[in-house]
Amino acid sequence: MTVLTLARRTGLVLGLPAVLFAVWWFATAGSTDFYVPPLSTILGKFGEVWTGERLLSDVVPSLVRLLAGYLLAVAVGVGLGLVVGMHRGVRDVLEPVLELFRAIPPPVLVPVIMLFAGIGDTMKVIVIVSGCMWPILLNTVEGVRAVDEVLSDTCRSYGITGPSRLWHLVLRSASPQIVTGMRQALSIAIILMVISEMFAASNGLGFTIVQFQRSFAIPEMWSGVLLLGLLGFALSLLFRVAENRVLAWYHGLRRAQRNP
């Protein structure tokens, strides 16, 4: 990759966020509104609030819950999606139940989950899983059902069955759609992480932002919102890097098809 190409890609990724920050800076530069402080004030509080003890007491626990819930959702979504996608009978039995639970907004389930999981980290992880697993599950099912019949017949002809067929054919063929579901689930995970920490929590980003709001520490509250945005942006970039590595063969095939 040349320096020019790297600079161009960096500009495409950071260009719009930079413009939005500039607009925010100049639009609020002379603000006297208590609820909309200048961005300079928010940035000053950002360094003061999120680089000390609060980094370990609030940010790290939130990231641990986010990671645990997201990885568990990936495991459940992909595992169940493979079973449902590969077996029509299972799909016919489970589809009405899955559609029923998928239609229930995860935040509505928070009080219910609290009844049997308590108010600790387990509840927060379950809330994240309850919302993240659906895009992963549905995309996995569709990816498995879209496996090329010719490739499937070829595997059968050569006696490639069981785990080998699952790994080399089904998962590889469905991986682009599975990754799409995982990308959608990542943003849902961040939202549910914050929502779960707003209920009977004692630490975490969601809890801290609500505490700032209730105590009318508005610049500090905005700094927490800004941190969530930066966290989502950073996780999105990391996910894109991982996706490019895992699906390098797929992106190469797409480029070859566009430029024969």
From TrEMBL:
Family matches, as Pfam families: BPD_transp_1
UniProt-listed SUPFAM superfamilies: MetI-like (SSF161098)
Keyword Cell wall biogenesis/degradation: no
Subcellular location: Cell membrane
Protein family (similarity comment): Belongs to the binding-protein-dependent transport system permease family.
Protein name (database record): ABC transporter permease subunit
Membrane topology: Multi-pass membrane protein
Segment forming the signal sequence: none
Species, as recorded: Streptomyces violaceus (Streptomyces venezuelae)
Transmembrane annotation, as ranges: 12-30, 67-87, 108-137, 185-210, 222-242
Domain ABC transmembrane type-1: 59-239
Record keywords, A-Z: Cell membrane, Membrane, Transmembrane, Transmembrane helix, Transport
InterPro entries named among the record's database cross-references: MetI-like, MetI-like_sf
Main location: membrane
Keyword Glycoprotein (UniProt): no
